Amino acid sequence: MASGEGPMLLALRSVGKVFSNGVTALSDVDLTIREGDFLSLLGPSGCGKSTALRLIAGLSTPTSGVLDWRGSIDRSNIGFVFQEPTLLPWADVFDNVWLPLRLKGVSRAKAAPAVTEMLERVHLTGFENAVPRELSGGMKMRVSIARAMVTKPRILLMDEPFAALDEITRFKLNNDLLELWQDERFTVVFVTHSVFESVFLSNRVVVMAARPGRVHAELAIDAPYPRDEAFRTSPDYAALCRQASDVLVGAINSTAGPHHDGH
Amino acid sequence: MTAIEETVLKLDPEEARRVRQERLERIGRWVLPLAIMILAIWLWDRVCVWNEIPKYILPRPGVVLQTLYDDAGLLFSSLLVTLRITFLSLLLAVIGGVGLAVLFAQSKWVEMSFFPFAIVLQVTPIVAIFPLINIYVDNQTVKLLLCAWIVAFFPILSNTTLGLNSVDRNLRDLFKLNGATRWQQLRYLRLPAAMPYFLGGLKIAGGLSLIGAVVAEFVAGAQGQSSGLASRIIEAGYRLNAPRLFAALILISLTGILIFLVLSLVSHLILRRWHESALKQER
After folding, report:
1. Do B177 and A89 touch (CB under 8 A)?
2. What parts of the sequence cross the membrane (chain B) (predicted)?
3. Mean of pLDDT over chain A
4. pLDDT score recorded for residue B227
5. For the whole model, what pTM was predicted?
6. What is the pLDDT of residue B1?
7. Which chain B residues have a beta carbon less than 8 Å from that of A86?
8. 8 Å CB contact of A103 and B184
9. Is any Cβ of chain A less than 8 angstroms from the Cβ of B273?
10. In B, which residues are within 8 Å of A103 by CB distance?
11. Which chain B residue shows the shortest CA-CA distance from A103?
12. Tens digits of per-residue pLDDT, B210-246?
């Protein structure tokens, strides 16, 4: 289960993004995402990892460079999970998960099997009629994941989805996400600032550096799946975390160089 | 219920004090205003007696109540006339306010261009505009409706516009990602998101449409053209019939309170499941 197995899905070639206020969010990013990858973008704040995700989603366009998709991809092939659950507060769980299908003109009755199945996959069966206010933070995030997956996207983009959750809930969601990923074999690009989370989940960790945002190094996490709670406390995991942590420190130090006070 | 009371018995002094405090507040919220109201009415009555004030200047509360009963036919038929104008203008204010807000929401440019006109309509005193309306409009009902509408539509327009524009940025991205059309975005995202704002505006507009109707009747009534409550008040004023004047005033106030309560209830029922404001009311 090492990196570099699947065929290429998307390549970012010399991608840069400069905002109108003059900030260079991304500079000369080259990155190849393969079919079936669980790829984490790891880095300090300001390294442009969220910007990269928005570019991939098509919510933003690059200033320079190209995004090279293999085959045709339209937006229905992309699932997006935001940092907050971002649910419709007035709609119940079922309607929130139905939303992407509803926007494509699928009726409630026709969408019901897919919605019900997705809710089962994220362990929310029985909560169809609850509104977001009645759910815990972890459950809201599960609804958000179900909504992103209900259209069976080829690629799932996640922008620090579990950052606001407590550790116990986060571990649980990590496990469940991996389970889902192993069953369905979609591609994941996962933005995080947690070394431990990125190593636990991914087969590839791309470490980014800030000012300007760029790819600093890439790490292959050659630990076999399925990864469970035993892996979380194993020496292998600790060693990989130390390795990733060292690379991240390198990335942070590369920022604190001569151009650190440039702004 | 009994379970709660049993635990109350085992509470430590601090918690017990808090429970007692909460219970007192719950009772006080109703009893206090009522007590003060009764005290004020009693004082009003005493002042009339002590100073021997004639009833054409300040009638005693009992006399006002008696007049309300004796003149009920006249007063309530006038109230119906005023209510008709109030509700019709509120309905038009909702249609106009929401319609314009949706139009404004379609483009920043439209909003920038036309919002100032709405403000001009709002800030110009209706009493000053009425003579103009009187010249241009013949139909009596249309005249009054137009007046009340001008007063009432602005809070709905302004609140709904704010609501339509305060949609969570990520939700907007989500709709974009899923290829939502402009109509879908309005129907499934912006209108529901604007609902709490709209209902807030509706509560204000409800009171304003009553005020607008009464003011319009006042101006029209001065010319002997109206049969609403306001014209009853003017009439009573000319005839020094203070008891009837007071009775009409009380009717208008009660109507205003009733409108507010009904709209508050409607708002609560619509928002109770998901909105923070309704959540706090439950406690």
Report:
1. no
2. 27-44, 85-105, 117-137, 143-167, 188-216, 245-271
3. 89
4. 82
5. 0.85
6. 45
7. 168, 170-171, 174
8. yes
9. yes
10. 175, 178-180, 184, 188
11. B180
12. 999 998 888 876 565 668 888 888 888 888 899 999 9
Are B178 and A76 within 8 A, CB to CB? Answer: yes
Interface of A with B (CB under 8 A): 57-59, 75-76, 78, 80, 82-84, 86, 88-91, 99-100, 102-104, 131-133, 151
Say whether residue B197 is in contact with chain A using an 8 A CB cutoff. no
3-state per-residue secondary structure call for chain B: CHHHHHHHHCCCHHHHHHHHHHHHHHHHHHHHHHHHHHHHHHHHHHHHHHCCCCCCCCCCHHHHHHHHHHCHHHHHHHHHHHHHHHHHHHHHHHHHHHHHHHHHHHCHHHHHHHHHHHHHHHHCCHHHHHHHHHHHCCCHHHHHHHHHHHHHHHHHHHHHHHHHHCCCHHHHHHHHHCCCCHHHHHHHHHHHHHHHHHHHHHHHHHHHHHHHHHHHHHHHHCCCCCCCHHHHHHHHHHCCCHHHHHHHHHHHHHHHHHHHHHHHHHHHHHHCCCCHHHHHHHC
pLDDT tens string B15-61: 888 989 999 999 998 899 999 999 999 999 999 999 999 988 899 99
C-alpha–C-alpha distance, residues A175 and A189, integer Å = 16
- Is A99 in Cβ contact with B188 (below 8 Å)? yes
Instruction: Give pLDDT, residue B231.
Output: 86
How does DSSP assign B59-76, residue by residue?
A: --HHHHHHHHHHTHHHHH
Contacts of B273 in chain A (CB under 8 A): 90, 131, 133
Q: Residue B91: its pLDDT value, please?
A: 96
Distances (CA, A) of A16 to A65, A110, B27, B131: 6, 42, 65, 64
Distance CA A67, CA A12 (A): 5
Q: Where is A206: in which H helix or E strand?
A: strand A204-209
Which residue ranges form the domains of chain B, and what is each CATH number? Answer: 2-50 (no CATH), 61-282 (1.10.3720.10)
Q: In this model, does residue B138 exceed pLDDT 50?
A: yes
**Contact criterion met (CB < 8 Å) for A131 and B168:** no
CB contact under 8 A, A80 and B177: yes
In this prediction, residue B224 carries a pLDDT of: 58
Q: Collapsing DSSP states into helix, strand and coil, what is residue B239?
A: coil
Instruction: Spell out, as residue ranges, where chain A has pLDDT lower than 70.
Output: 1-5, 72-76, 256-263
Confirm or reject contact between B175 and chain A (CB < 8 A).
Answer: yes
**Quick check: B70 contacting A, CB < 8 Å?**
no
Nearest to B274 among A58, A59, A90 (CB): A90
